[in-house]
Every structure is written in C-alpha cells, then in structure tokens.
Amino acid sequence: MHVEGFFEWLGQALGAIIRWVVDSLSWLFSLLGNAGGNFVDGLSRTLGMDTNVVTIAALIVGLLFLYSAVRAFMRASIIMGVIWAVLGLWLLSWIIQ
Q1: At residue 25, does pLDDT exceed 90?
Q2: Is the dihedral of CA 24, 42, 89, 67 positive or negative?
Q3: Is the Transmembrane helix keyword given for this protein (predicted)?
Q4: What is the pLDDT of residues 35-58, one digit of tens each?
Q5: Is residue 77 within a helix (H) or strand (E), and if so which, with residue range?
Q6: How many other C-beta atoms lie within 10 A of the C-beta of residue 39?
Q7: Alpha helical stretches, state H, 48-77
C-alpha cells in the first residue's frame, strides 16, 4: 500500500510540473500573439491601410524595393536605383492612404 501512495504522489508531482510548463507556454504565446496583433493594428492605423496579410506583405515588398534602390545608388547604378525607387514608392503609395 505504501508503494502505491509513493507512485501516486510521483504522478501528481509530475503532472503538476507538466501542467505548469504548458500553462506558462500558453501564457507566453498568448502574450506574444497579442503584442504582434497590437503592433500590426497600430502600424496599419497610423499608415491608414487595412490589416490583412496582403497589405502587410505589400508593405514589406515596397520597403524591400526602397532598400534595393538605396543599395543600387550606393553602387553608383543610377538607372537601377531610380527604377527600384519608383517601384517602391508606387507600391507604397498604392497601399498607404
């Protein structure tokens, strides 16, 4: 009988540890999800754009176009820099209202 009590206690202790780990990870991922959602909401509200995945992806692509323009200008490639800058500004002006 004493052995059953020990293993019951061990199972309860292990279950409590696993429950604490799962609850902690759930809290952490919930916190990160809420922070990411609030960031996207604030960004889209400030820029005056929608909060869907397509506009966020278009924003990232537009910023990458501008980054490519800066890199082209630093390599002294004026024509490619102008092309990348025009594409980036066109895309960003299309999504930002």
Answers
A1: yes
A2: negative
A3: yes
A4: 998 998 998 889 888 888 899 899
A5: none
A6: 10
A7: 53-74
* Same domain membership, residue 8 and residue 30: yes
pLDDT for position 6: 82
- If asked whether residues 66 and 90 sit together in one domain, one would say yes
Per-residue b or e along 52-65, where b marks 16 or more CB atoms closer than 10 Å to that residue's CB? eeebbebbeebeeb
80 in Cβ contact with 72 (< 8 Å): yes
**Residues 43, 12 share a domain:** yes
User: Which residue type sits at 44?
Assistant: S
Q: Enter the DSSP assignment of 48.
A: T
Q: Are 66 and 84 in contact (CB under 8 A)?
A: yes
The pTM for the full model equals: 0.68
